[in-house]
Amino acid sequence: MFKNIVVIFLTIILIYSLFPKDSTAKDVVRIAESQSGLDMRHFYLNAVLNKALEKTKNSYGNFEIKMTISDAQRERALLELIKGEKINVHIAATQKKWEENSIPIRIPILKGLLGYRLLLIKSQNQDKFSSINSVEELKQLKAGLNLHWTTTKVMSKLGFNIIKGGAYDGLFKMLMRDRFDYFPRGVNEVFAEFDCRKKLMPDLKIEPRIALYLPQPTYIFVSPKYPQLAKRIESGLQIMLKDGSLDKLFWEFNKSNIDKANLKNRTIFKLENPLLPPETPFDQKQLWFNPLEKPVN
Q1: Contact 41, 188 (CB under 8 A)
Q2: What predicted TM-score, i.e. pTM, was given to this entire model?
């Protein structure tokens, strides 16, 4: 446990040390803080944002990234993004109204990895999952999700039995109190979440056999009041795609989780996402993670 805490602490220092502190910065990027001290989901996303801005310094000048509001649930985050005052950039799984009310940069910076979901369960309930062989059987059990999340809207639309919670940390406690049977988490999220909590929640378990795949791109969204900043970030991401640095960063942050997920040997239930806008770039195969894909060296 101590080793994990040290690794987490050093990772936090590394990510935040990447953010320039230049009072003469031409572009000031304001993003929301994470929702919890145990929430490490944004380290990679913020590292990509920082790298895209770095790649465009010659063309657009210096920049500064500032953490502003905290506990930005999806609805509030969109309202703040539209205003462009407290935050002018937000990174999240896409939703139609986000694409309509802000400037979406349609490059899935997580390569769709968030869509590969493992199930956090209570170890005593493993028997409920051992005999599941279809999506319809899984739908008979209760899933726990945040009421604001994109995943919640999609899985509800698909007919899953959803128990909704309002707080990120609270969902783990609800699972342990048998309020629901499983908590679907992205491959990029689940192992850090498990490691941070396994001492306090010894009954927490990552179900070993099942995975879900729900197409779910994560985009960088920019306030409609900052079109030039959106052009800068998109330009930086395009440079990263061409020079391979986006793939390199993806594998640096996610290879360990992908290896541990062992997707090749899991039963993957593939779902449709009826809420995705038609502009989703599925035709660009290089933008998406494939479980058979080899890591970039």
Answers
A1: yes
A2: 0.86
